[in-house]
Amino acid sequence: MPPKAALKLKQTTGAGGKGKGLRPVRDDDDGATHTEAGDQGDDWMQPKSLLKPEDQLELSEAELKEEFTRILTANNPHAPQNIVRYSFKEKQYKQISSVDQLAVHFTLDGNMLHKESDEARRQQARLEGHAEVTSSKKYRKGHSEPAASELGEPAEGSGAAEGEGAAEKPAEGAAEARDDGATPAPAKPEKLTNQFNFSERASQTYNNPYRERGTATEPPPRLNFSANVSQWEIFDAYQEDFAKQEKNKEKKVVPGRKEEDTKKKKLTAVEAQGDDISKIAKSAKIIERMVNQNTYDDIAQDFKYWEDVSDEYREQEGTLLPLWKFSYERAKKLAVTSICFSPRYKDLFAVGHGSYDFLKQTRGMVLFYTLKNPSYPEFIFSTESGVMCLDIHPEHPYLVAVGFYDGSVGVYNLTENQNAPVYLSTAKNGKHTDPVWQVRWQKDDLDNNLNFFSISSDGRVVAWTLVKNELEYYDVLKLTLEGAAQDGPDGVQLFSLGCGTCFDFHKDTDYLFLVGTEEGKLHKCSKAYSSQFLDTIDAHHMAVYKVAWNPYHPKIFITCSADWTVKIWDHNIKEPMFTFDLNSSVGDVAWAPYSSTIFAAVTADGKVHVYDLNVNKYEAICEQAVVAKKKTKLTHIGFNPSHPIIMVGDDRGYVTSLKLSPNLRKMPKAKKGQQIEQGPEVEIAKLDKILSLVREPEPAKKA
Amino acid sequence: MAEEGGEKKVVEVVKHTYPLIRHSDMQDEMRVEAMELCVTACEKFSTNNETAAKMIKETMDKKFGPSWHVVVGEGYGFEITHEVKNLIYMFFGGNVAITLWKCS
């Protein structure tokens, strides 16, 4: 073969040279045959046509013959010649001479192995193994059942050992069935380690039995309701309702009128807080009074019927019988600062509580008691500041003017069921700067507005008018002290004001009133002049506590003072008609309403002094200590306008009622066969008769 | 008397437009609220009882939970089952009757 191939090469090269073109190269075998035949001649072969690409350069013969010399070297022309690297050895950059000249243009991995090489052997070994496997597969196809059982058995055995589930039983049974037909399989050299070689291990838990349980809630209660609506039904309903409303309104109005007109007011007004209570309030009140009547039955009997028989044997003196004692839990230790009887209800009286101690001021209270219920006040008003004085309006007995220690004045309305005053003066509208010592209602003014006066130790007498919702005020009088004007630091005259402590208005002469001061002076004043007094009397050496006109005689008045004296004056005479020394500070004095000659005074040593000028012009006809404790001071006194009893208040908050014995309310003796005359004229005459004895040395005085 | 009555009626017909509760077993608070709601709705939709009823129902559903039923009308009869303490039957405006109850 080698010589033939060499021949063929020769031929082809020769042919290529002749034809100057490309000639397709044929397969070796064919080429060999052709070459054999080619020796005989080329003519029978197909003529060779040259195919030229269209863009081939047309070259001339000379150009074609031109030689281009190419020299092949072992150097890579693209390899860089000038690589420089840093040589650490010589510590400088150095050109590298040995440049890699290798250039790889094409690589192809061969697929031929040497038979003796390791790789070849390994492959050989693998091929053999594969052949065995395939052969065993073929074998199994023939006897598939025994093979499967062979594989399955170990898995099942382990599964059965582990789980005792019922589900495995059929599988086991199947395995047994297969075992019957099982034939021993040839031992395999190794176990197959493919991913499909798994064993199934299933188990199942017990299913819990189901149980049903249910509850039903109770449905919300329901009701049936039915009605018919039509226009006339609606109309009728409105009519009915309206009628009912009207009725209610009337009902409400009727008691309201009664309250104003009759005396039921105090019963209904009390504790009308809730509907439930107000329904039984009246009956509860009656029951309460009945209980009290039973409790204090002996006192009530005394009040009505007891007359001290010993008076018959005593020529002139009389006694006081203690009756009820009024007190209220929250008013204890609050001094009684005023007592005022209701002009309409004979059994009702108001008590003001406060403190006379300048250093120890407390809250105050206004309490209304009735003789019918000594255990609990009828009305209770508590105040922040101490109450110093009060006065019940003579025509509207539900209105109470109150003066406070802080200088303010207020008006309470008993019909309004509230604890706060309906009117109250404020710092903005004329409030006094010092305690208010006395308030007194006046006749309605020209516009029929209610008004009252107040006096305070800030030296002012102020008139207050109740206009709608507020109090209007104007200063009636300023109590300037005579000769007390001092030069102020800037040469301004400073007028110091006297401290008013009490006043009283003349019953008949409307403009005339008396003012008592802390300096002991007594001013006769007129409402018309605000800057000057009609007259001034140096009445006492210490503060005047009370001044009061005689209820019968228009010229006579009485004063009491801290200088232990009580004095009776004729307002035209600067000297007192009578002077009585009571050996203690006199807190209050009051004329008896039933006689012109009788008056009573209370002193700080706890005694009540009752005088009757008609009986004794020099000494009291009764002088009696009425307090339990020695230190208790009596502060105020009040005569009941119709019953022969007096009320005395002390500085511990108690009010004691005392019955006057017959001698203390003795009327002019009835001469034999002569009719007992009564009336104011008689009283005035009686007093005048006594006074005339005193006046004798003063001829100027005209009766 | 008759004349007086007649006169009175004429006056009163004009007058009586206030809400008048004919029957209710609600608690006070709820009753007042329901009544005010009815008044508001009937005043707002004085010409359309249906929308008024719708408003009442929806508001009551919101405030007191479902399911409320309302009848607003000038003349009708009814027999209903309602949950206890959830019924109000009232007149308003002199010619409208409102029945409002809950039954869920």
TrEMBL record, chain A:
GO function term, MF aspect, one: dynein heavy chain binding
Composition skew (Basic and acidic residues), residue ranges: 115-131, 166-181
Repeat is among the record's keywords: yes
Pfam family, one: WD40
Biased composition (Polar residues): 192-208
UniProt region (Disordered), positions on chain: 1-48, 115-223
Domain of life of the native organism: Eukaryota
Gene3D superfamilies named among the record's database cross-references: YVTN repeat-like/Quinoprotein amine dehydrogenase
Compositional bias per record (Low complexity), positions renumbered to this chain: 145-164
UniProt record similarity statement: Belongs to the dynein intermediate chain family.
Record-given protein name: Dynein intermediate chain 2, ciliary isoform X1
Species per Swiss-Prot/TrEMBL record: Lingula anatina
UniProt lineage: Eukaryota, Metazoa, Spiralia, Lophotrochozoa, Brachiopoda
Automatic annotation (TrEMBL), chain B:
Presence of keyword rRNA-binding: no
Compartment(s) of residence: Cytoplasm, Cytoskeleton, Cilium axoneme
GO cellular component: axoneme; dynein complex; microtubule
Top-rank taxon: Eukaryota
Pfam families: Dynein_light
Record protein name field: Dynein light chain
Encoding gene, per UniProt annotation: LOC106154108
SMART domains hit by this protein: Dynein_light
Predominant subcellular localization, coarse grouping: cytoplasm
Subunit structure: Consists of at least two heavy chains and a number of intermediate and light chains.
Source organism (scientific name): Lingula anatina
Job of this protein: Force generating protein of respiratory cilia. Produces force towards the minus ends of microtubules. Dynein has ATPase activity.
Family statement drawn from the similarity comment of this UniProt entry: Belongs to the dynein light chain family.
Any GO BP annotation: microtubule-based process
Keywords on record: Cell projection, Cilium, Cytoplasm, Cytoskeleton, Dynein, Microtubule, Motor protein
